[in-house]
Design a protein that fits this description.
Layout: H1 5-16, E1 20-30, E2 37-44, E3 47-51, E4 61-64, E5 70-73, E6 83-88, E7 93-98, H2 101-116, H3 127-143, H4 191-200, E8 207-211, E9 218-226, E10 229-240, E11 243-246, E12 252-254, H5 257-267, H6 318-322, E13 331-335, E14 344-348, H7 351-397
Antiparallel strand pairs: 1-2, 1-7, 2-3, 3-4, 5-6, 6-7, 8-9, 9-10, 10-11, 11-12, 13-14
Helix pairs in contact: 2-3
């Protein structure tokens, strides 16, 4: 018993989580393969899912069309002939084959619309088919808004203005402003002008990033030195919704133009550097004259008067330092030996104290004189008594 198509689509929507825009049978193969294989394809978002048949829930292969660089029609458009497209992706080239040209035209319209976020011109579709295509475009823009690219920087003033340039002029609302986030070696020049700039001023650098003749794409021109002489090379950088693709033998995907420049610097082992004209620098510093109201002379230092202190009189004789002062009246200084800081205390002797000291001194002198007299009298009396005793002894003997 076959599963209804509606149920199968619901299961696939749950697995992929992307809206379905177009589906149908087609043939697919790589360019290096010989035979086509039949698949049932579903275009969900910007991804083409391939199933073995229309009843399988899980896809066998998928193609990420966000990294689509080109889609070329290999056979002329004919009503009764199969249509073959060659899709160039980052890492491979895939060929898709449809049974008739009408189906092929619908596949081409839907694929380019979801990738470029706009309906391609000159589509040979009916009005009803165009309405369905417009609905798919509106849904895809709402699901994933297109990335707004920064405006191109202005053209260098030292380059002559070409008579016919394929590059459109800059918008008038931002004259003379460089786009933010752009490399410094980005110049709005043609290939010939970029090569002339590198040839005329090799000391400025060897890499110039410039816009391509294709809309919303860029190119890189570099000048390399070889044993046979300098060689000019040009590389294309394609812009996609998810970043930038450097179109080499093996395509390289980066997220910004600065990463494009970084990739080339690394691959050339930093033997080249971005083209940036040198700017003039001043070598002399001029000193402006000082204003008249400001004095440039050093101020006169203020003189601070010195304190005049009488010199300390020091006695040369050690004995004189030990003698007490002989002056009885007035003030004198008594050293305090027991004081740790050796401060001198000033002692004021009043009149009463002086009188007491004088009175005591006189009493000392008087007592001293009396002792001398008593001693003398005692000595004299002793001598007399001794003589009397001697006379009495002689008398008794007689």
């Amino acid at each position: 018993m076959s599963v209804p198509t509606r149920v199968v689509h619901k299961r696939r929507a749950t697995i992929t989580d992307l809206p379905l825009y177009y589906s149908g049978y087609l043939l697919k193969k790589l360019t290096k393969e010989k035979d086509f294989k039949k698949y049932y394809g579903e275009l969900r978002g910007a991804t083409l899912f391939l199933y073995k048949n229309d009843t399988e829930d899980t896809y066998t292969e998928k193609l990420d069309l966000e990294k689509l660089k080109s889609m070329v029609l290999d056979s002329p458009y004919q009503r009764k002939e199969p249509t073959i497209f060659t899709l160039t992706l980052d890492t491979e080239e895939v060929q898709l084959k449809m049974d008739n040209s009408d189906t092929g035209e619908e596949w081409r319209g839907y694929i380019l619309t979801v990738v470029k976020k706009k309906i391609p011109s000159r589509l040979q579709l009916l009005p009803g088919q165009m309405l369905l295509l417009q609905e798919a475009l509106d849904q895809e823009r709402k699901r994933k808004p297109p990335i707004v690219r920064p405006p191109l920087p202005p053209r260098p003033s030292f380059l002559p203005s070409p008579s016919a340039s394929p590059i459109p002029p800059l918008p008038k609302d931002k004259p003379g402003h460089s786009a933010p986030g752009m490399p410094e070696c980005f110049y709005r020049v043609t290939r010939q002008e970029a090569e002339q700039m590198l040839e005329a001023n090799p000391e400025y650098g060897g890499i110039i990033l410039r816009p391509s003749t294709l809309a919303n794409n860029y190119a890189l021109t570099l000048r390399q030195l070889t044993p046979s002489g300098p060689v000019m090379k040009n590389y294309r950088v394609a812009s996609t919704n998810s970043g930038f693709v450097i179109e080499l033998d093996t395509a390289v995907m980066v997220s910004s133009l600065n990463d494009v420049l970084k990739y080339f610097l690394e691959k050339t082992e930093y033997r080249l550097h971005p083209y940036m004209p040198s700017q003039p620098y001043d070598t002399c510093i001029d000193v402006s004259p000082a204003p008249k109201c400001v004095s440039i002379t050093s101020p006169t230092p203020k003189t601070v008067p010195k304190a005049q202190v009488a010199p300390t009189l020091r006695s040369q004789n050690k004995e004189e330092l030990l003698l007490p002062p002989t002056k009885e009246e007035g003030e004198y200084v008594i050293p305090d030996d027991q004081c740790p800081d050796h401060n001198l205390r000033l002692v004021q002797l009043d009149g009463e104290l002086r009188d007491v000291l004088k009175f005591r001194r006189e009493n000392l002198y008087t007592a001293s004189d009396k002792e001398e007299v008593t001693t003398y009298e005692n000595q004299t009396t002793g001598n007399s008594t001794s003589g009397t005793a001697q006379w009495a002894t002689r008398s008794a003997a007689v």
